[in-house]
């Protein structure tokens, strides 16, 4: 979904003087704050960088623990590991694939510093319940919003309920800057500190240096900046994202209508009451009979020209790194494992129209007919 507007915006940056640390990043941050309602937005090089910076700000270190959903991208847990702390995984709930809130408190210990939640496939976590637990145990709350641009809980955008929200602009997301990410928060001190730490911990940005070469380094930091080319793309994409989200919703609803009541097929609960999804994809949960044929079904769809994916192929604690390090078993997270082994994700992105969705639904039905 790259239009002439993005191409021209990137070209203008290439024709200009500033590739990094410039006005485009600031403009993109302001536009993202307007879209989400955030007080502060800090642009960074990826969602992984965003998560790492937030935990770094928290001074997370060896001996600390963070509650992490088992059903997520590995980045959610890696960011904790990168600080030397331990992710303590919690299984998913069956209705949405989100963290099972009922199982959080039994995993909190004296070492727990934070709860991280992921709005799985764009469905918001019940942040009221999360904040209730966090307040009771004095914990920091990190929202991994990699799939949650356009996700609202009680009318407030994802990322603004907890202490920090981390977004991804990787190509398959709701909008893209090729690689890229953003941190949103209501905490000014955090935003300012993180904006220094994304650029080596230098005490003033390049634009703030009246005399070139005069600066101090008063904290540790990374090189996690978003550059001006990416920011220029982001500015144009934010302008279009409402339109993208509208198409995603329509596409999702078309598939829901087709799959409702289909034999041996289920799907997650979507937008209802205070919970508004961003419709990242349409994840089909195959019943027992079809589950064994999942790869045949995916293959038939590939042959029909329909791209599929799996979110996510294994619970993170069942990936070798975590399994070997912490001794988790393949059956330690039954709900997350069930989602991993039975789901096929179908696309609903804005590059697809109503006719495409009819074709995808028909191709899926044909694929399962062939498989059984
Ligand atoms: C839930 C979740 N968190 C974090 C990430 C990492 O995002 P990035 O590629 O921008 O680092 C992803 C990537 O898909 C994700 O799905």
The hetero molecules present are: pyridoxal-5'-phosphate
Largest sheet: 7 strands, mixed
Instruction: State the low-pLDDT regions, or none.
Output: none
**Total domain count:** 2
User: Helix and strand string, N-terminal first?
Assistant: HHEHEHEEHEEEEEHHEEEHHHHEH
Q: What is the CATH architecture term of the largest domain?
A: 3-Layer(aba) Sandwich
Strand line-up of the largest beta sheet? 1-9-8-5-4-2-3
- Whole-angstrom Rg: 21 Å
Number of strands: 13
Query: What is the fold-level CATH name, i.e. the topology of the largest domain?
Result: Aspartate Aminotransferase, domain 2
How would you explain this protein's 3D organization?
By secondary structure, the chain is of the alpha/beta class. It has 2 domains: 4-239, Type I PLP-dependent aspartate aminotransferase-like (Major domain) (Aspartate Aminotransferase, domain 2, 3-Layer(aba) Sandwich); 242-371, Aspartate Aminotransferase, domain 1, CATH 3.90.1150. Helices cover 39% and strands 15% of the residues. It is built from 12 helices and 13 strands. The protein has helices at residues 4-15, 23-36, 47-57, 74-81, 127-137, 188-197, 228-259, 288-291, 294-303, 320-326, 334-342, 354-371; strands spanning 40-44, 65-69, 86-90, 112-118, 140-144, 152-153, 156-157, 164-168, 181-185, 265-267, 275-276, 282-286, 343-346. Helix 5 links the parallel strand 4 and strand 5 (140-144). The longest helix is centred in the middle third of the chain and has 32 residues, at 228-259. The mean pLDDT is 97. The structure holds pyridoxal-5'-phosphate. The site of pyridoxal-5'-phosphate has 14 residues, from helix 3 and helix 4.
């Amino acid at each position: 979904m790259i239009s002439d507007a993005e191409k021209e915006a990137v070209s203008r940056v290439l024709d200009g003087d500033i590739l990094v640390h410039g006005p485009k990043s600031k403009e993109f941050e302001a536009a993202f704050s307007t879209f989400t309602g955030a007080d502060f937005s800090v642009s960074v090089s990826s969602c992984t960088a965003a998560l790492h910076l937030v935990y770094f700000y928290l001074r997370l270190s060896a001996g600390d623990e963070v509650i992490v959903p088992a059903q997520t991208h590995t980045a959610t847990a890696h960011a904790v590991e990168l600080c030397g702390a331990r992710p303590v995984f919690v299984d998913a709930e069956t209705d949405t694939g989100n963290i099972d809130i009922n199982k959080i408190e039994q995993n909190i210990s004296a070492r727990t510093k934070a709860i991280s939640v992921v709005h799985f496939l764009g469905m918001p976590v019940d942040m009221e319940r999360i904040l209730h637990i966090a307040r009771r145990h004095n914990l920091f709350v990190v929202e991994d919003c990699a799939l949650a641009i356009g996700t609202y809980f009680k009318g407030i955008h994802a990322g603004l309920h907890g202490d920090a929200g981390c977004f991804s602009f990787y190509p398959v997301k709701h909008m893209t800057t090729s690689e890229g990410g953003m941190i949103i928060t209501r905490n000014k001190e955090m935003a300012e500190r993180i904006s220094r730490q994304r650029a080596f911990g230098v005490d003033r940005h390049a634009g703030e240096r009246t005399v070139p070469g005069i600066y101090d380094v008063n904290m540790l930091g990374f090189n996690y900046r978003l550059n001006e080319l990416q920011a220029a793309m982001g500015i144009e994409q934010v302008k279009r994202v409402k339109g993208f989200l509208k198409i995603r919703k329509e596409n999702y609803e078309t598939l829901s209508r087709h799959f409702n009541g289909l034999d041996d097929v289920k799907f997650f609960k979507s937008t209802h009451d205070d919970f508004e999804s961003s419709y990242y994809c349409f994840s089909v949960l195959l019943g027992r009979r079809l589950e064994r044929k999942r790869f045949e079904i995916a293959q038939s769809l590939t042959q029909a020209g329909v791209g599929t994916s799996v979110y996510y192929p294994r619970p993170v604690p069942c990936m070798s790194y975590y399994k070997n390090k912490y001794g988790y078993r393949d059956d330690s997270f039954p709900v997350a494992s069930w989602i991993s082994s039975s789901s096929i994700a179908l696309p609903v992105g804005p590059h697809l129209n109503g006719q495409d969705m009819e074709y995808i639904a028909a191709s899926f039905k044909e694929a399962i007919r062939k498989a059984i």
